[in-house]
Design brief:
single chain, alpha/beta, Rossmann fold, 6-phosphogluconate dehydrogenase C-terminal fold, 2 domains, binds 1,4-dihydronicotinamide adenine dinucleotide, binds 3-(4-hydroxy-phenyl)pyruvic acid
Length: 307
């Protein structure tokens, strides 16, 4: 367990958006630091009530001013398009010692939103993204073990004091996560390729099948390969609309590369070029094996239901 002087001082933590990610953070923190008072704020009254009933939070608040009073840390875990409106509501009540962080899957847009909303208080905001999740959402999907041995990417701002960055890093370490550091641009390009594009493809494939003749018959015979490929199409549409729009430039680049690759596959099929297909499939199989080995030595293996 990581214990720093900064973390020993954490007494009150506010979570804005108590769904899968905020709820799992709260459960993990509670498990390792029972003394921390956890306050939840929500757009959905039903989710707020549910988070209280499930013991995810100690207090359900509907008043941002009193929620922020004496808060050491505020964690925003709502869809990324909500960042500016939430930070604007926080701004007038933000005490000088309070640090604010987020969990958004995109980082350049979050920084732009934060700068607009927080102005002179921007140094108090430390952007972050836990690289762990699953396709279920809402407080009922939250689990304390979600972040165990998983990465937490921090895209620190030049205005952040080292103590603010350390507070965010050590709090997530308490939840089991391993801090990593990237620039917002590095972050958004990497995740466009390995997270945002796969989600887009999964949604597009399932949607496309619903529009085909005999869609029901096709779904009836779909097996585990289809289930694996499309698991992430079960994720929150609002969240993925926001991510896709927020990172659309990098995502469009990745889509262009992918379209070129599909064209390569289509050409090989048209020409019955088995050697070309074998080269693509063999390279992909070897690269995936190397990736699985690397991940398994650093983290718990990816498993059904998300990682
Ligand atoms: N689902 C995943 O696997 C991962 C998601 N993320 C990011 O974490 C954030 C939260 O995602 P999830 O927890 O999965 O979604 P979720 O849908 O489970 O929870 C989000 C919660 O935010 C609430 N909310 C929305 N707008 C709000 C507002 N203006 N004020 C207060 N509450 C508001 C919703 O009512 C909902 O309960 C998103 O930004 C997402 O990009 C990051 C890593 C993984
Ligand atoms: O469901 C899955 O496997 C995911 O890919 C989870 C996930 C979703 C969004 C993120 O920003 C990070 C992780």
């Amino acid at each position: 367990m990581v214990a720093t002087s900064a973390n020993e001082q954490l007494k009150k933590v506010v979570i804005i958006g108590v769904g899968l990610i905020g709820g799992s953070f709260a459960l993990a923190l509670k498990k390792n630091s029972a003394a921390i008072h956890l306050v939840g704020l929500e757009r959905s009254a039903a989710s707020l009530e549910r988070a209280l009933v499930l013991g995810i939070i100690d207090e359900a608040s509907t008043d941002i001013a009193s929620a922020l009073q004496g808060a050491d840390l505020v964690v925003i875990s709502a869809p990324v398009a909500q960042t500016e409106v939430i930070l604007s509501a926080i701004y007038p009540h933000l005490e000088a010692h309070t640090i604010v962080t987020d969990t958004g899957s995109t980082k350049a847009d979050v920084e732009v939103s934060a700068r607009k909303a927080l102005q002179d208080k921007i140094g108090q905001f430390v952007p972050a993204h836990p690289i762990a999740g699953r396709e279920s959402n809402g407080p009922d999907a939250a689990i304390a073990s979600l972040y165990q041995a998983k990465k937490l990417v921090i895209t620190a701002l030049p205005e952040n004091a080292q103590s603010a960055i350390d507070l965010v890093a050590t709090t997530w370490q308490r939840c089991g996560a391993v801090p990593h550091y990237l620039t917002p641009s590095q972050h958004d390009h990497v995740f466009a390729a390995v997270s945002h594009l796969p989600h887009l493809l999964a949604y597009a494939l399932v949607d496309q099948i619903t529009e085909q003749p005999q869609a029901e018959l096709r779904f009836q015979y779909a097996a585990s390969g289809f289930r694996d490929f499309t698991r992430i199409a079960g994720s929150s549409p609002e969240m993925w609309r926001d991510i896709s729009l927020a990172n659309r430039a990098a995502l469009l680049d990745e889509l262009t590369h992918y379209q070129a690759q599909l064209q390569r596959v289509a050409n090989a099929l048209k020409q019955s070029d088995g050697a070309e297909l074998l080269a693509i499939f063999s390279n992909a199989q070897a690269a995936r094996r190397r990736w699985i080995q690397a991940i398994e030595s650093a983290e718990q293996p990816p498993k059904e239901g998300g990682d």
